[in-house]
Amino acid sequence: MRRPQSARRAKAAAKAAGGIAALLKSMHDAVAVASTAQDRLDALTKAIARHVASDVCSIYLRLPSDELELFSTEGLNREAVHKTRLNWGEGLVGVVAETQRPLVTADAPLHPNFAYRPETGEDPLHSFLGVPLVRSGKSLGVLVLQNQVSRRYTDDEVGAATAVATLLAEIAASGELLDQRTTEDVGAMFHRPERLKGVGVVPGVARGRAAFHEPPTPKHKVFATDAAAEAQRLELGIAALQASVDAMLARETLEDAPREVLETYRLFAYDRGWKERMRAAALSGLTAESAVEQVQAENRARMSQITDPYLRERMHDLDDLSRRLLRHLTGAEAAATVELPETAILMARVLGPAELLEYDRSRLKGLVVADASPTSHVAIVARALGVPLVAGIDSALGLVEAGDDVIIDGESGDVLIRPTTDVISSYREKEALQSEQQAAFAAERDLPSVTRDGVMIELFMNAGIPLDMSHLESTGAVGVGLFRTELQFIIGAQLPRAGAQEKLYAQILALAGGKPVIFRTADLGADKAGAYMKVKPEANPAMGWRGLRMAIDRPGLFRPQLRALLAASAGGVAHILFPMITVPDEVDAARELIAKEVDFANRRGKPLPAEIRIGAMIETPAAAWRIDDIAARVDFLSIGGNDLAQFYFAADRDAEMTQRRFDPLEPGFLSFIGRLAEAADRAGKPLTFCGEQAADPLMGAALIGAGLRRFSAPASSIGPFRRLLRSIDAAGVSAWLAASARMKSPIRRDFSQYLATEGVQLP
Question: pLDDT at position 255, please?
Fold first, then answer.
């Protein structure tokens, strides 16, 4: 009778886990009896070669010069040790170190990156498996396995090698097994200056000390002196982890959707196989922390080969569980409880808007968030707080240590770690210059926003939290052209009540001091949803169930917001803007809901606004095509430039590759915008451009040339934009753009040169 497939897999997994445990014990025993650093390293190499049935096992370590030196080998010529060196990226070893990914080939000499070193005596070898030694995001070296027979290493062998490489990296960084010179060389890599290039999200220059939103696991010993004690410590850590997950599930306020997620999460936390593999690793001689890291490295190596999206997503669950378990074992503090240094540059992989607001603003000077974009909510909050933000640098988290001196430039996207005194001096000068510029912009706030040829431009301000409103007076903006209301829905643990919403909107109107505030109804959906919302994952959330589509389908969510907006605007003018309009019928449906709320207020004797002005956002090509019909149904129009551009180009605005390929400063897109401006003029309806593109000086000038006369921009952009528009000739720019239709894209450089010749003051 055939054994069930699941049983066979379980047996194979158990066998593999037992093999790794035996290897780790062998490594521990080999190290224990060796006398010198080189002897210990050679003993490790021999033990690894023996257990994985490899003809050759070699360890290359990275030097401060970024060369990779052969430090130990079992199977190659011993004379090559400390003599054979490869440049960074050279040969198969160099490729593994540079990419930080395993490399497997059945015939190494035929690989295009193969580099022959005759002194090693590797002529008869064919099979090659190289695994990087990575710690804190830094490549420290490469573990290499080779065989004479031409074959492809199995996934289990790759997993075992990855687990071993994780331990070797920890050893190399800690100095437990290497001589003083090597330890100093490895340590030097973690303390030398680094200059990284990311994406500038919120402009500004900031200098401070690095602090981690989620602190990395503290350094720890790799091998234990008492295996039984470490196994017991691991048991206690797992029990604490399970208790914390149970506590989360026990919360009465937890809605069904997150409860289901946590239930799945809990299954992993109580998984016997996961627990037993870590226990076996600890009993083999590892510390509890190293046992957790070793098992997770093995999991990660195996699951990275899986193509099924659901199964790959489970790797993230295991990663998170492992990190939580490590924090229990090390006693590391939770993220937001860590006290910031006096001047902090906060480093994070991901950061939510609510989490950002929990930090001490007086100490927070800058942000480096790996996963963030100009339109993300953390960026919106950071912009409101005036905190420079750089995104898109995963490696920064691994190259910096808590307390390191860091400089970030939110305009250029530069992140400088441990900068030299010369670099610090140059950035101090840049900070001083920016302060002078801001003072000059403030002095110009009362100057009329009129182009050289007499065209009046209205400048509004974007906002999303009460803190934003402090900039309204200082910028000289005529009002708030876009108040994003969804932040209140996202950061809360439950749906905000109508009373809480009304209180917020009334506060915003009071802070506006009589200036108009256009409130956009919550643009919620699959990509922006509160924890309490039951929203199914979508392949393309930006094109899915969001904005007004969701509001119409869920009047129970939408009507309390309308009720709050009407109540807060009682006696005045209510400006209500609907997002994600596609067809005119959606405007009709939204107006019907407003009519019901007006009737509801009248029946209860509630005060209402003296006037209700309704607007529609044009951010889909469908709405742009039907703009005449939509304009007939509303009082004003707004262009959502961010979404409109991404739908126009069929390019995700947050995807790096498409960001580089498509530039909104393109003749066709500008002509498209110009047609919308003409349609608004025909209908006699004001049209405001609300996208972040208005913060780009060249794009702002081009949009004026395209016919736009109202803009809503971030507070930090209004001063530079006012100076820019006062120096341009709108008719001249329009004529140049008309001629550019025959030019080859991109036109950014040519347009910049044209403006320069016209004496335009580009910020």
Answer: 44
pLDDT averaged per 10 residues, the chain (length 763): 41 48 68 70 83 86 83 90 89 88 89 88 88 78 91 80 81 60 54 78 88 65 80 88 76 48 65 81 84 77 52 54 76 56 86 69 89 71 83 73 87 85 69 69 86 95 80 90 81 71 93 95 67 59 71 82 95 94 93 93 94 95 95 96 86 62 84 95 96 82 95 86 92 91 79 90 73
What domains can be seen in the chain, in order of their start residue?
34-189 (3.30.450.40), 194-215+335-422 (3.50.30.10), 227-288+306-330 (1.10.274.10), 457-757 (3.20.20.60)
**What pLDDT, on the 0 to 100 scale, is given for residue 707?**
95
The DSSP secondary structure of 452-515, one letter per residue, reads: TT--B-EEEEEESSGGGGGHHHHHT-SSEEEEE-THHHHHSSSPPPHHHHHHHHHHHHHHHTTS
Whether the model pTM is above 0.70: no
CA–CA separation, 36 and 177 (whole Å): 9
Per-residue pLDDT, 671: 92
CA distance 195 to 718: 30
Position 254 scores a pLDDT of 45
Cα angle for residues 607, 613, 614 (degrees, 5° grid) = 120
Give alpha helix (H) positions in 531-655. 547-553, 555-568, 584-603, 621-625, 627-631, 641-649
Note if 377 is an active site residue. Answer: yes
Q: Provide the 3-class DSSP secondary structure of residue 746.
A: coil
- What CA–CA distance (Å, rounded) separates 373 from 379? 7
The catalytic position among 28, 51, 471, 690 is: 690
| Helices (H), ranges, 513-554 | 547-553
To which residue do tokens 């240590």 refer?
Answer: 401
User: Count of H helices and E strands in the chain?
Assistant: 29, 22
Q: What is the gyration radius of the CA atoms in the chain, in angstroms?
A: 30
Of 28, 126, 328, 377, which is the active-site residue?
377
At 432, the amino acid letter reads A
Closest by CA position to 564, among listed 611, 512, 616, 506: 506
What is the end-to-end Cα distance of the chain in Å, rounded?
78
Tokens at residue 741, please?
A: 């239709």
Exposed (0-12), middle (13-18) or buried (19+): which is 513, by Cβ within 10 Å? exposed
In the prediction, which pLDDT does 395 show?
A: 62
The residue type at 215: P
Displacement of CA 378 from its chain's centroid (Å): 10
Sign, Cα dihedral of 189, 191, 194, 198: positive
Of 723, 672, 713, 673, which Cα lies nearest the Cα of 690? 713
- Provide the pLDDT for residue 14: 43
**Tokens describing residue 20:** 């790794």
pLDDT score at 627: 96
What distances in angstroms separate CA 234 from CA 247, 323, 358, 702, one per listed residue?
20, 13, 32, 62
Do residues 54 and 72 touch, judged by C-beta distance below 8 A? no
Question: How much is the pLDDT for 311?
Answer: 45
Phi, psi (rounded to 5 degrees) for 548: -65, -25
Phi and psi, residue 157, nearest 5°: -70, -40
Peptide bond before 746: cis, by omega within 30 degrees of 0?
yes
690 is catalytic: yes
Helix (H, G, I), strand (E, B) or coil at 708: coil
Strands ordered across the beta sheet of 138-147? 85-86, 68-74, 56-62, 138-147, 127-135, 103-105
